[in-house]
Structures are given as C-alpha cells and as structure tokens.
Inverse folding.
C-alpha cells in the first residue's frame, strides 16, 4: 500500500506520497494567497529539500504553476532555496501559467523523486547544446526518461507559426529520446500545455497526428479498434510559458526490463479519443514487480461518442469526470483514493468551492493535487482532471 503523509503550515500544504521505498511524488499547494509569490516558492522548496534529504531522494521531475508576471522572481526563489539546501540549481523544470484559484501569483509545485542505488550511475541529466532538458534514472533493469519543457523554440529564437513550432516540439523530443536509446514508441505519457488552446486545438491535433505518423505510431489497419492502438496517455490544456512558445511539453518514456510490463488502459465510459482525431490513449500503465503506475490522461465530462456533457454545470461535470476515472482505474484494482499526484483544472477559479464540495462527497478531501484556473480544450468544458495512481503489490 502506498504511504501518504501531509505536512501543513500557515502558507502551504505538502502531500507526500511514498509510492514505494525508492519512489516519491510530492505536491505542494499554496494556501495563503496573500503571501508574496517568491516567498511562497522559496518556503516550499526549502521544505521540499528537507523532505528529500530525509529520504535520500533526488528530483527527477519538477513542475511549477504560477502567473507569468512573477515567473522570474519565482524561479529565482527556487534557485536560492535549492542552492541553500545543497541541491543542484541547474536541474530541469517546467514553468506553466496556472493561476491559483485563490489570489494571484503562485499556485504550487509537483515533484517526482527517486532514490538510486548508485547516484553516479543510476541517475543523470539529459542535455544538448541549448541546455538541460530532463532527467533519466535506472531502477533495476528499467530505464525511465523524463523530458521537460520541450517547446518549438530554436534556442531562444521562435519558429514561425504554431504548426511549425508543434512539429519542432515533437521532433526535438524525438531527438533527445534517441540519444538515450529510445523514441516515441517508448513514450507512455505526455503533458502538453498550449497557448490559447481554444483557438487552435484542432490544428494542434493535426500536427501531432502528422508527427505520430512519421514516428510510425499510427501504422495500423483501418479494421483495428481505436482502443487497441498503442498511443501515449496525454494531457492537452491551456498553459502559457515564459518563453512565448506556442506550446511546451513534458514527456515520460520507459525502456522496460524483463520484469516490467507497459500497456494501455481503455476507457469504460469513454471510447478512445483517436475516434475523434486526438492521438492519445485514455490511460497507460507501468507494471513493475512491486507497484503498478496508472497514468490517466486529462479527463473531462465527455460521453462515449466524444460529446461534451452538462454544459454550464460545473458540479455535474466534476462528478462525471470522477465517475469516468473511477471506472477506468478499477480495471487495475485501483480506487480514487490511490491518487499519487494530480492537477485540477477549472475554467473559472470561482468554482473552486464546488470542486471542494464534490470531492468531499467522494471522500477525497485530502487529494494530493495542485488546483489551477485554465481553459480546457473545449469552450463548454469547465473542469479537467490530470492524475496518476499507484497500486502496490
């Protein structure tokens, strides 16, 4: 069984999930909207450093949500806190514009950490000539590769057009993966944050499909059910970035050893999104010898035909999303209480109280999540859940 602990102070809440002895997920949410964003960030990272040192863990994925107006001072505060704690300050990160549902400035942090047997050999930073773009780590005979903040910029120079940037974003990820002996056929999860998503989500899907065709992910027969197609789980949500890129992406790929199984999870109450043009799976599983990780794609109130449900009714959309999620993860023996990390997206920040009321109905008052205000991929959708689950064996 996963072990979860919660640490609270007057400004922040820390959800610490020990997936197993050497794997950790940590969500830190700001609960004092009056505190200056940089001070909140510095305090959070100082506490994160304490937790990681207590457990002998190393950061392998680091994502921040906050207002772009404060991004420079927030990131500077992160560096100061890490440096003060003796942790590398040049570790990759992803900064996404995710407005907190209360106040302005900084919403929170999501951390994935790992305890290697040999810190010199079993964990490393992925780099190219432009900087650091991720971390890789080895657990037993399996290699995990996490790319961060992959966008369509060429260095600091923007490439013209959203479609061109999207193509370059996927090409850049593929090139970085290839240097680690992997490719998009090894990708099990992507997190994609698009600027002004409602203006061009259809174009983005066409650009992604073109690249996935090029990477031989869509080379199947027309008679093959969409639910059987091997595609990464994914989130596509509105999220600007400090670089002004059309989009940015985090990517998790796995080179499995003999004891690890990678497989997709089909929706029970929802069909494959590829049926309506979006190339991703409802979920992907990593089955290790001691734990199963379930990577849920970004999930909203959509019926089995791909139609949006309950327009204008946030409460009904949240309930439907939780019911869809519960049915999907039940196939792997998981429940909503097995959430190890989540991001909650609300179109209207004022609906936060509705979310709090609904999760209380479901017995999830202490959900390990960062909650932000952001547009979902359809104007009528008011809520989306991006979550990961862990079930120990």
């Amino acid at each position: 069984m996963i072990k979860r602990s919660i640490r609270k102070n007057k400004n922040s809440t820390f959800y610490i999930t020990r997936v197993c002895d050497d794997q950790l997920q940590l969500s830190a949410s700001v609960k004092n909207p009056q505190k200056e964003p940089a001070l909140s960030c510095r305090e959070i990272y100082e506490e994160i450093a304490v937790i990681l040192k207590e457990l002998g863990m190393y950061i392998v994925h680091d994502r921040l949500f906050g207002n772009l107006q404060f991004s420079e001072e927030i990131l500077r505060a992160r560096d100061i806190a890490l440096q003060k704690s003796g942790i590398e300050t040049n570790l990759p990160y992803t900064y996404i514009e995710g407005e907190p549902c209360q106040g302005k400035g900084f919403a929170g942090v999501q951390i994935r950490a790992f305890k290697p047997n040999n810190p010199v050999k079993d964990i490393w930073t992925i780099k190219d000539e432009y900087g650091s773009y991720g971390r890789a780590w080895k657990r037993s005979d399996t290699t995990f590769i996490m790319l961060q903040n992959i966008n369509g910029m060429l260095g600091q120079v923007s490439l013209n057009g959203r479609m061109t940037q999207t193509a370059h974003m996927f090409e850049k990820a593929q090139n970085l993966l290839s240097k680690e002996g992997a490719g998009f056929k090894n990708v099990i999860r992507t997190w994609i944050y698009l600027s002004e998503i409602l203006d061009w989500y259809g174009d983005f899907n066409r650009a992604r499909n073109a690249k996935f065709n090029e990477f031989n992910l869509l080379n199947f027969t027309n008679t093959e059910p969409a639910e059987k197609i091997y595609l990464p789980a994914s989130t596509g949500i509105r999220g600007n970035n400090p670089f002004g890129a059309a989009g940015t992406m985090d990517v998790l790929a796995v080179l499995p050893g003999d004891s690890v199984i990678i497989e997709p999870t089909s929706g029970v109450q929802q069909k494959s999104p590829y049926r309506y043009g979006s190339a991703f799976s409802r979920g992907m599983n990593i089955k290790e010898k001691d734990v199963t990780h379930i990577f849920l794609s970004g999930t909203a109130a959509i019926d089995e035909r791909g139609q949006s449900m309950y327009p204008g009714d946030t409460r009904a959309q949240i309930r439907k999303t939780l019911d869809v999620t519960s049915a999907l993860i039940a196939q792997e023996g998981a429940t909503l209480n097995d959430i190890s990390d989540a991001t909650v997206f609300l179109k209207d920040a004022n609906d936060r109280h509705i979310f709090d009321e609904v999760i209380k109905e479901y017995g999830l008052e202490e959900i390990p999540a960062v909650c932000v205000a952001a547009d979902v991929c359809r104007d009528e959708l008011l809520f989306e859940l991006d979550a990961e689950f862990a079930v120990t064996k």
